[in-house]
Amino acid sequence: MHHEAKSDLLIRATAAYRRVVADPEGFGPEAARLVAEARAAGDAEALVAALRAEAWRERIQLAHDRAMTLLDEAARVARRHRLAAALGQVLVARGAVNHELGRLAAARRDFDHAAGLVGPAMTAELASQQAALYQNMGRLAEAAALYRGVLADPHTPPEVRTKVANNLGIIEAQCGRTEAALAWLREAAAAAEEVGPAVVAIVAESRAWVTVQAGRLTDGLDLFEQAAGLWAAAGLPLGELYAEYADALVDLRLIPEAADRAERAVAMLERQGVQLMAAEALLRSARLAQLRGDPQAAVIAAETAAERLRRQGRASWAARARLVAVDARLQAGESLPDDLPAARRAAATLERAGMTSSAVEAYLSAGRVAAALGRKPEAVRAWRRAHELARRAPVLVRVKGRLAAALAARLQQRHDAVLAHGRAGMDDLARHRATLASAELRALASGHGAELGRLGLASLLQTHAPAQVLAWMERTRVAALSSVDAPATEGIEEELGALRAVHADLLQARRETGTEPPDLLARQAAIEDHIRRATWARRPPATATGAGLSTAELRRLLAGQVLVEYDVLEGGVLAVVLEPRRTRVVPLGPVEAVRYEVDALLFALRRLARGGSAASMAAARDSADFSLGRLGELLIEPLCLPPGRGLVVVPVGELQRVPWSALHEEPVSIAPSAALWARSRLRRPAADAHVVLVAGPELPGAAREVDLLRAVHERPTVLVPPASRVETVTRALRGAGLAHLACHGHIRADNPTFSSLLLSDGRLTVHELDQRGIAPYRMVLAACESGSDTTYEGNEMLGFVSTLIARGTAGLVASLVVVPDWDVVPLMRSLHAGVRAGATLAEALHAARAAVDRREPASFLGWCAFNAFGAA
Question: What's the whole-model pTM score?
């Protein structure tokens, strides 16, 4: 009986390892109990097996020091009792832990020793661990060969088959063969179902990462969210998942979110002593520091990561880290003499390893360093190689390849080649943008093509007609808004209501204490994050809203007005002027001069809005007048515009903060792009369009403003507190021909889709207007700073103005700065009277401003603050 009991204990201890692999959370405690039972029974073989099982559970929980202690004890017991096969099993497990701790030489010794001890049942496990070691050292071909050998053996157990197919999928993705990678991961997922929840979770995370590498970023995000739930349910630590999740967020250009995940991964993995993965996470953190514009922090983190990876014997990863340091120094203008050979070596290392995407980035970097050093032939060779490698890669890698080819062509002054590569790259980017589910993601994605856009514009200015320059500008202007998602609030209605409730609680807290409680702010951020992610994951049909127009068609729609489209290139402002009979390109001054005057003007207007002594108000007014004059000299006077003609302005970047209506003596309308302006020109109001007048809370002049405007219109819908609730207002806005909202505005430069208008029961956000598909034909936002959209790299913008015009609003008036509500009532009444008489918003605003007594500071503020957008 005693012998039978010992045999039963050994059977249970041996089975515990497989159970822990499958479900560490569920079976980890059983392994610890078996260790205690084996000690008490004095069963050395069962103790070795149980220690191995408990150690593997600790390893999965990233408690590697504890795992090593248990495995060292198991090895000692196995040696003492001459348990050769059991010692081999322990050494395979210890080698895996050493591997993850970054002790690659120790891992190899364990595996080599184990090879002479393990029986046939462990051969596949040992081979898979040796292959994983090769994989992390960058010896991908050797690793793949071992993995395929393991999979060819029909006796390979499911837990090993799962891991091997999973890792082989990752190798295929690293080499740019994403369809093959996904096929292996499907095989891994099928095998994982036979094993348990922990393995299912690991494969799910790999599938998410590979889906991102394939260029299907939104799908990848959704899969990462699913994987995170599986990891949490399986009790797996999230450090590794966060690190790889950061890759997806970087490709989507969600840089703050990616940085958060990478920093959390570094902290978790370093705290747990998992040096292999911690070094990888630190490399990601370095890259993100560079993308955030902190090259010094990027260099420090990248060099630290490179040294760790070098000590681990991981040449490919170390090469990637050195490249980040090279790029960051170049960004800071502090390149070292050794950076060019370092970049070349890194590129060659990554290409030999078959890591196509990383090799393309490496050759792109090597070319930049060579060009900065004046080594033109070397730069051209590096960039051409990047282009060659990128040809069959996923879409964002192809865009980088096209950028490299365009840079090489520019260096050789082959302007037509620059344009050819630029167009091909922008077409690839457009296809990528079309796969994204929200305007926010599409706007961010345009940043991938910002440099290509600038290269193309510079080449066109050298060799082509002004009309082609205008067409290129249009190609790179608010492309994210060229399609609009179908209205859809399903699945987020509850969150929208919860967000309004939090806004109301924050407002109440500010009234009572003057502060915003951190717990409410955290809840607001969490709800916003959930709403954004729900939007990212959707697949609604998209409707095109603006295609490119010929200059002849634009002239017909302009009907005698002049269109001026601005851009910024190499620090200078330039404009294309489309007149009734000719098109011109006009170089203007440095953008820094414009930025200085805009900052000074907006500062002076804010001082006027706050009020003060007569002397301070006079000084602010003088400053505002001076800056307006300078902006006119910089942006309007050099254009030599024909007199007596209305002006359509398409600004970009810094120029979107300019009070254009105050710079020109005729009516001025503004648009995100000429195509969107043309669309607004062609739109007509609904036959049953009605007028909606809304007053928000906490504005003493808002109800009076709405009451005076009521007299201008015939039977308008009037909503004032407490009736001006979000649901009531949004219902009234549907199909409105003219809507006027006199509300507090809250502009969120950090997250413009959550900029909002304060209504009686909470805030109406840009996001909700967009998702509900609300776009009145004409709209007046008498709300502070509602005309200040946020600009993004790649000539994108998001906010009230751009979202409403993209949705279909044909005309809009909004303010650039804070304006006291009681001071704009006469201006608003004149504006509405002009619209009622048949004027466009731009014409009505021009006439209303002409009636303002600008000698009064408050009246001057209203005269200067409002711009008209769109054609209606």
Answer: 0.86
